[in-house]
Specification:
mainly alpha; Serine Threonine Protein Phosphatase 5, Tetratricopeptide repeat; 2 domains; 11 helices; about 75% helix; disordered C terminus
């Protein structure tokens, strides 16, 4: 474990002794616990942050990410929906709801969310990457390749390999199941 995480955890705990009703401190506590891979404890911290400030979009998004990693896709979807309700211009919330919808096999809705994320942040490499994965899964190889090429234009180096493997060398070849499951958040 990184020494920085230990120090951050100690400082947050000290702050919570003086400010026990501070939503942001609970959010940061959740982040530290999330980095430590203590998912249940991070869920608790994010939930407290939300209880203290029901408009804490970051806490909803991060709690949704943790729920998604625990395969609670319905719970993750609820959190991303709430984050979007509070801040409909948050591209990160749209991206992560799209990833969750793809995990729930709601592929058309996932693409629509990736479209919205891109509209809000036109250089969003992760949104292009994930929209390409879903398009490829649906058999739209050329659309997937266009999205992946756009993702590489915005610095996504992993997708460069996909472009050379699936778009240039093997037109018409779909991604393996392993690659499909690597929807990035």
């Amino acid at each position: 474990m990184s020494g920085n995480l230990i120090v951050a955890d100690q400082q947050i705990d000290a702050g919570l002794k003086y400010y026990p009703n501070n939503s942001e401190l609970y959010f940061f506590k959740g982040r530290v616990l999330q980095e430590k891979r203590k998912d249940t404890a991070s869920l608790t911290s994010y939930s407290i942050a939300i209880f203290l400030d029901s408009k804490n979009v970051k806490a909803y998004i991060n709690r949704g990410l943790v729920k998604g990693s625990l395969r609670d896709l319905s719970g993750a979807l609820d959190d991303f929906n709430e984050a979007i309700r509070i801040d409909p211009r948050n591209s990160y919330a749209w991206l992560n709801r799209g990833v969750t919808l793809a995990g729930l096999n709601q592929l058309t809705a996932a693409i629509a969310d990736f479209d919205t994320a891109i509209k809000l942040k036109p250089d969003y490499a992760d949104a292009y990457r994930n929209r390409g994965i879903v398009k490829n899964y649906l058999g739209n190889q050329s659309g997937a390749c266009r999205d992946w090429m756009q993702s590489t234009n915005f610095g996504d180096n992993e997708v460069r390999e996909w472009v050379s493997t699936y778009c240039k060398a093997k037109q018409g070849t779909r991604l393996s199941n392993e690659t499909k499951s690597s929807l990035q958040k």
